[in-house]
Amino acid sequence: MDKNIEEVSALIRQCAEAGAQFVSTPEMSHLLESSAEEIYRKTTAQDQDRGVQDFASLAAELGLWLNIGSLAIQPSEGTLCNRSFLFAPDGRLAATYDKIHMFDVRLSSGEKYRESKRYTAGTRAVIADLPWGKLGMTICYDMRFPGLYRQLAQAGTDFLTVPSAFTVPTGRAHWHALLRGRAIETGCFVLAAAQIGEHECGRKTYGHSLIISPWGEILSEAGDGAGIIVADINPNEVEAARAKIPSLSLEQEFELVSTKGELKAVS
Q1: Maximum Cα–Cα distance for the chain, whole Å?
Q2: What pairing do the DSSP bridges indicate for beta strands 126-130 and 133-137?
Q3: Mind telling me the catalytic residues?
Q4: CA dist., res. 29 & res. 79, Å (int)
Q5: Where are the domains of the chain?
Q6: CA 83: distance to chain centroid?
Q7: What is the DSSP letter of 55?
């Protein structure tokens, strides 16, 4: 964990040197561990967590908004949550978000994941105020549930963070499509920092961190190694995109009618 905190902090410093005012890091920034026993042994309550303390200090030192994609935290003894943190430029903890949708899947490659066996799912969506607009905080598997993003956008969100540790098979197939889709349908900027590489259990993560415009354009994409990406963002593009495609303002109810084996939608 100490090594991860050190390496993540060094990358955050690179972002600051590149002129970044807002920085986001991947899901599980200081610990990605498959063994439940090891997770409990290495993690603590939020107020004792080394990562929370160090990253708060780093945000204050560098004077930037810092979204630590997520950390494994023990909200109470014997429980775990996958929690995202937003630190203000003075080091203040501005917001936290606990991952709502647990990654419980069996992939065609044979890989199996049961995140709900270790972590307790969150129950609330979170929007935080930034100097440039409102930030909707999400984590990884959340991206497959567009209803969450629509609600965030309708509540005034301008930017969406989607820190991730996406598997390689699903990353190759769905990563770009899902994230561009969330940007297009909400008219939000999407900031998706991602883990990359092979981890202790042999799991491989896809990487390819992305910054996407409200029109679905990829403004910056990471390569096949660790590093940083940077993009200039104009918040006015949010309003412009939504004016062109005003789908967020429309709400329709449908009755589904099945006739002769065909499913029809009646508005």
Answers
A1: 67
A2: antiparallel
A3: 27, 99, 140
A4: 19
A5: 2-266
A6: 10
A7: H
Task: Please give the single-letter amino acid code of residue 70.
Answer: S
Tokens coding 242? 């939504």
- Give pLDDT tens digits for 227-258: 999 999 999 999 999 999 999 988 777 776 66
Cα separation, 136 vs 161, in Å, equals 6
Give the C-alpha distances (Å, rounded to integers) separating 29 from 3, 8, 9, 174: 11, 7, 10, 22
Answer whether 0.85 is exceeded by the pTM: yes
User: How many angstroms separate the CA atoms of 25 and 68, rounded?
Assistant: 5
Say which amino acid occupies 187. Answer: G
Return the ∠ at Cα 100 (arms to 96 and 229), rounded to 5°.
60
Give me the residue label for tokens 């309550």: 45
Fold classification of 2-266 (topology level)? Nitrilase/N-carbamoyl-D-aminoacid amidohydrolase (3.60.110)
